[in-house]
Amino acid sequence: MNEAQAIDVHGISKVYRGGLFGRRKFRALNEVSLAVGRGEIFGLLGPNGAGKTTLIKVLLGIIRNNGGSGSLLGESLGSRGSRGRIGYLPENLRMDSHHNALSALDFYGGLSGLSRSVIRSRRDSILELVGLADRRKTPVKEYSKGMRQRLGLAQALLHDPDLLVLDEPTDGLDPVGRNQIRGILRELRERGKTVFLNSHILQEVELICDRIGILNHGVLLMDSGVAALSQQDTQEFTLEVVADEPTLLGVLGEIPFTVNEQHDGVTKLSLRLSNQGEVDQVVDILRRAGISIAAMSRRTLSLEERFLDIVGTSNDDTSETPNDETSTPT
What digits encode the pLDDT tens for the residues 279-302? Predict the structure, then answer.
């Protein structure tokens, strides 16, 4: 086990059985390998049904993997030793409506094995941190969804964990609230905490994370530092050339392009290129073929566009994603 990594998993797979006599199999995770360093904020991206929540449940030992191995904080997945050092905010955390923020933290702190005196010494500062200090005695049933998310984050922080696992932590928050949560996570990173978050909000991940992973259909398609991803500088070039589409197909060969419009012998086409060498190559090919370039412009692709390039725009298989409560793990 790698003590230098907060999360270290290799070849994690998860298969569910469903249908009559459990004959139908669904592979929710397919040999996922991932390492998250201590003191790092890691964001896991993916469309609905990609396997993100399943991976979190495997990491926490809520469900068992079928293949592969891994560790959290230097201990085996699901071990008691690691659980006591992890703060977890599940998606759509449900709290009994009779609680207020103070009594909810008393309850969750007790579940974490904290004494009443320790809970009471911490809860005021944590409620201040998440922006609920002035609503500490308000019944949870009167909370908005965003306020419930804040309280959920507070309970995850109460026992001072080394690793935070957050499933859609900014869900239900307005822009001001999301900005505040980002500030909290940055402060926790400065204190040496590790944060593993699952989100479908690409901008949030880009703004706060040190590294991101993209999961789709149970396969980890990319694991990259956010800075390195931006430095790849993948760009879309729009060219206006004096040629028709069949001629361009013959000249450019396997270089993919999209024709935007054609008018009076001039074709406007778009290409996605990742570096200046590829730009030079396309220009050289066109000029050798005697094709005039009337105009050229470029723009850097957003994270969302790169995300769609990686996962594709279609996710027809998401309807087959099993419900953990009705499917049988193998």
Answer: 899 999 999 999 999 888 887 776
Separation CA 169–CA 177 (nearest Å): 11
Q: What is the pLDDT of residue 325?
A: 40
Tokens of residue 155, six digits: 């309970």
Report the alpha-carbon distance of residue 159 to residue 282 in Å, rounded: 57
**Whether the predicted pLDDT of 18 surpasses 90:** no
Better-predicted residue by pLDDT, 135 or 238: 135
DSSP state at residue 168: S
Whole-angstrom Cα distance, residue 188 to residue 41?
Answer: 9
Domain boundaries, given as residue ranges, for the chain: 5-224, 235-300
Q: Which residues pair with 215 in a beta bridge?
A: 220
For 221, the 3-state DSSP assignment is strand
**232 closest CA partner among 268, 274, 193, 290:** 274
Helix/strand/coil (H/E/C) assignment for every residue in 274-290: CCHHHHHHHHHHHHHCC
Is a pLDDT exceeding 50 seen at residue 316? no
Tell me the whole-structure pTM to 2 decimals.
0.75
* Long-range Cβ contact pairs of 249-258 (< 8 A, separation 24 or more): 251/285, 251/286, 251/289, 251/291, 252/282, 252/285, 252/286, 255/282, 255/285
Which amino acid is it at 54?
T
Residue 177 bridge partners (DSSP): none
Residue in this structure with the two tokens 């994603």, named with its chain if needed: 321
Evaluate if residue 322 carries a pLDDT over 60.
no
Annotation: CATH topology of 5-224: Rossmann fold (3.40.50)
Q: Which of 175, 185, 167 is nearest to 46 (CA)?
A: 167
Q: Determine contact, residues 65/58, Cβ cutoff 8 Å.
A: yes
Q: For 235-300, give the CATH class.
A: alpha beta
CB of 272 within 8 A of CB of 235?
Answer: yes
Work out the angle at residue 323's Cα, subtended by the Cα atoms of residues 329 and 29, and round it to the nearest 5 degrees: 55
With H, G, I as helix, E, B as strand and everything else as coil, classify residue 179. Answer: helix
Residue 70 and residue 8: Cα distance in Å, rounded? 5
